[in-house]
Amino acid sequence: MDDMEKTIRKHKGESMAMSVETSVDWRGRPCKSNKHGGMTAAVFVLGLQAFEMMAIAAVGNNLITYVFNDMHFPLSKSANIVTNFIGTVFLLSLLGGFLSDSYLGSFWTMLIFGFVELSGFILLSVQAHLPQLKPPHCNMVLEGDNCLEAKGYKALIFFLALYLVALGSGCLKPNIISHGADQFRKDDSKQSKNLSSYFNAAYFAFCMGELVALTVLVWVQTHSGMDVGFGVSAAAMAMGLISLISGTLVYMNKPSRGSIFTPITQVFVAAITKRKQICPSNSGMLHGSQLPESALVSSSNVRNLLHTEKFRFLDKACIKVQDQMQTSESPWRLCTVTQVEQVKIIISVVPIFACTIIFNTILAQLQTFSVQQGSSMNTKLIKGFQIPPASLQSIPYLMLIFLVPLYETVFVPVARKITGRDSGISPLQRIGIGLFVATLSMVSAALVERKRRNSALDSNKILSIFWIAPQFLIFGLSEMFTAVGLIEFFYKQSVEGMQSFLTAMTYCSYSFGFFLSSLLVSLVNRITSGHSSTRGWLGDNDLNKDRLDLFYWLLAALSLINFFNYLFWSRWYSYNPSLSPTSQHDSYAEDLENHSLNSSKHIAAHDNNIP
After folding, report:
1. CA nearest to 439, candidates 538, 536, 523, 361
2. CA-to-CA distance for 327 and 431, rounded, in angstroms?
3. Which residues make Cβ contacts (< 8 Å) with residue 594, sequence separation at least 6?
């Protein structure tokens, strides 16, 4: 027993140094705790977050105006171009996460694709400025049929520039979050507390970027031309890259570890190959579950994971097949417990991810139908000044730049005293609160739309645009909980070497939410127009003839069902003891000790039964 205690103490000491051993500076040397990382380093990443969001949001929110008025694409085609662009940005985040974790590392991925995005903004600005690179000027509203659509090299330049922006932004997004979070050591209690604060700060930077884009930059595009607007986006992106590069000397960088898909594939191949094997009742007999000299740190400096009971069929990949030759098995036939647990984590987080798709479908309504609602209302604020309906999207961000600091300075300390958690409440609890509040946003939208429609039809009155402000405010509050909670959850549940890729899954939720929105609109129109002469709830261009209020009620019902579905999956989800959300270092050492003593008892009992 004395030897066992010494071994455990040794491994506890190794775990204290593990974070340093797996992080290097810009020259590839081990990081020093007093020189690298912390909030000082994360601030430079937050600068990139704010400026990049400012640049991309200014382009995305007003892109349809440029595509329609300057490139002369038909309105329906213009809408599809914008939708495809946004969807591509979010889907490409998976590519950025994969390249970062597998080959380039987060810093170099951001630097390379940051310049790719910058080149796209510059090319858009140049094309918008030079008449010879655009179709001849023409009013699409009055002379739409006679306007020449962009074709040939003009269309090629436009799509090349647009998708350079999409490629750069998509590959940047997950790495901005993960690289900033990598600056905090999980074995340091003070920095562990700062990690949750960082996620709130990152969302604050996101809100600031969106707010400036939806107000200042959109105003510049409208009054000074799209060429100047794209140029300002390029300048903002350049400022973001300067911020990123300025922190080079203080960053803690996680080295890449080779393809992240290879060990995942090996688990499935090995489990299928050994599907007829019977899993041992004693998990200590599985390959890699004992306590060797490197119990905490594997050969690739990756923390080993303790065995869990879920998805036991995958444990078959860890069964050693005994033969007379005693030959070693191929990695495609025999995997370690850590490999299998990594796959279990990925499978386990999928239901949580899926529950946020409806949430982003609601977000899509606020960027489409809610703006259309505003267009049919009284937009006059004061005499001589009217609010552009699209600027309503800035309302939640204006609120959040005050609410996020309040959440961090008031709510978190109070909740921390009650729950004992560094972050106040767990990421799963935070997501759940946001999903419930999102339902209230659609309830508000439905009630206001019914009042607006009845006032227009019965009394011929036009309501003020401020009637729809509550649905934006409520959703902004829900986004503060769900969006930040989801990113924090995925990052904390990812093992070393997969942080960027799992963080990228949060952005895919946006993409799937927008695609589901398009599908729902088409499906609702088909069903509601199937047995009558009407065009359906959303089939007319006139909101007074449509039934947008009923569509909002449908989304509210779906959102509430989704909330209860989330409650089930969040209760079903169990953290791997090695990735415990509270006091990670201490709890892991305790879990390791208990696991080691239990394993030694099983092994001793097994030895006593041997004749």
Report:
1. 361
2. 49
3. none
Q: How far is CA 442 from the centre of its chain?
A: 22
- On whether the pTM is more than 0.85, the answer is no
430 by Cβ neighbours in 10 Å (0-12 / 13-18 / 19+) ranks as buried
Query: How far is it, in rounded angstroms, from Cα 367 to Cα 57?
Result: 12
Using N-to-C axis directions, what is the helix angle for 394-406 and 469-493, rounded to 10°? 50
501-537: pLDDT as tens digits: 777 888 888 888 877 887 888 788 888 876 555 667 8
3-state secondary structure of 420: coil
Q: Is 230 exposed, middle or buried (0-12, 13-18, 19+ CB in 10 A)?
A: buried
Crossing angle for the helix pair 38-69 and 75-99, to the nearest 10 degrees:
160
| Concatenated DSSP letters of 308-371 | -SSSGGGGGGGPPPP-TT-PPPPTTT---HHHHHHHHHHHHHHHHHHTTHHHHHHHHHHHTHHH
Q: CA 60 to CA 360: how far, in whole Å?
A: 17
Q: Which of 239, 222, 257 is nearest to 105 (CA)?
A: 257
C-alpha span between 176 and 410 (Å, rounded): 26
Distance of alpha carbon 305 from alpha carbon 338, whole angstroms: 5
Instruction: Report yes or no: 20 and 30 within 8 Å, Cβ to Cβ.
Output: yes
DSSP-based helix, strand, coil % in the chain, nearest 5:
70, 0, 25
Q: Which sign does the torsion angle of CA 574, 579, 583, 585 carry?
A: positive
Which of 602, 600, 611, 603 lies closest to 1 in space, CA to CA? 600
Q: CA 427, 430, 435 angle in degrees (round to 5)?
A: 125
Q: Which residue has the tokens 């985040």?
A: 93
Tens-digit pLDDT profile for residues 208-267: 998 888 888 888 887 788 888 899 999 999 999 999 999 999 888 888 777 778 888 888
- Check if the beta carbon of residue 178 is closer than 8 Å to that of residue 491: yes
Handedness of CA 349, 354, 355, 360 (dihedral sign): positive
Q: Is 609 helix (H, G, I), strand (E, B) or coil?
A: coil
Give dist(CA 214, CA 234) in Å, integer. 16
Q: Taking Cα atoms as reference points, which of 290, 292, 343 lies closest to residue 315?
A: 343
Q: Which is nearest to 158 in space by CA: 176, 140, 135, 138?
A: 135
Residue closest to 58 by CA, chosen among 133, 103, 121: 121
Cα dist from 183 to 35, 96, 194, 486, 527, whole Å? 11, 19, 10, 19, 51
Phi and psi at residue 302, in whole multiples of 5°? -105, 130
**Helix, strand, or coil here: 163?**
helix
Between helix 261-273 and helix 337-354 the angle, nearest 10°, is 110
Quote the crossing angle between the two packed helices 189-212 and 38-69, to the nearest 10°.
20
Identify whether the C-beta of residue 165 lies closer than 8 Å to the C-beta of residue 181: no
Q: Report the run of H or E that residue 431 belongs to, with start and end.
A: helix 427-454
Is residue 382 classed as helix, strand or coil in its secondary structure?
strand
3-state secondary structure of 71: coil
Tokens of 510: 């946006």
- The C-alpha atoms of residue 576 and residue 346 are separated, in whole angstroms, by 12
| Pair of tokens at residue 428 | 């799963």
User: Pairing state of beta strands 380-382 and 385-386?
Assistant: antiparallel
Q: What is the pLDDT of residue 1?
A: 42
Which residue type sits at 509?
S
Residue 253, helix vs strand vs coil: strand
